[in-house]
């Protein structure tokens, strides 16, 4: 993975991508605080599972769900994709836009929660969700939003951490059962979808950054047939 973004703050002349936020203000505030507590939260490198799975795809329109500080969005744009990057944190979006600007790349930024974003349906050749913190709801709104965004012939790539210790997570105030996982997305698939990858594999983990201690991935790659 050679297309790393520079560490630290982007240049000060970067146009701000942060417009009116669409979503739960408390969720935005929570993630803004997490990013504001550190000058850089993630490694600055694209996620290994995304690089492995997207390298063989023909670039088209891609939706980067929960783009964070923009490493995946920058890598995708560099490799020829037309990138729409969605994020709830305005702090993260500012950093992501700065990295894209410094690299001379164009990314379409969306400051919204996935379920509130009013994305054009069935319009993305790739929807990438790398370790997203998507809350589950009784109507499976987040899972359905992910699937609805994929164009016919397109791919949803959903990657999350394997081997999460539920008891330890709950002791830290995090219940894995509250969140969307590859398995909850797979439960909604019908004959309009083909499962191309559904497996646990060793993670190609970047050095440093939050979450670097996770060693294995759950990888779900599904293609919309019609």
UniProtKB/TrEMBL annotation:
<keyword id="KW-0489">Methyltransferase</keyword>
<protein>
    <submittedName>
        <fullName>SAM-dependent methyltransferase</fullName>
    </submittedName>
</protein>
<keyword id="KW-0949">S-adenosyl-L-methionine</keyword>
<feature type="domain" description="Methyltransferase">
    <location>
        <begin position="62"/>
        <end position="154"/>
    </location>
</feature>
<dbReference type="GO" id="GO:0008168">
    <property type="term" value="F:methyltransferase activity"/>
</dbReference>
<dbReference type="InterPro" id="IPR041698">
    <property type="entry name" value="Methyltransf_25"/>
</dbReference>
<dbReference type="Pfam" id="PF13649">
    <property type="entry name" value="Methyltransf_25"/>
</dbReference>
<keyword id="KW-0808">Transferase</keyword>
<dbReference type="InterPro" id="IPR029063">
    <property type="entry name" value="SAM-dependent_MTases_sf"/>
</dbReference>
<dbReference type="GO" id="GO:0032259">
    <property type="term" value="P:methylation"/>
</dbReference>
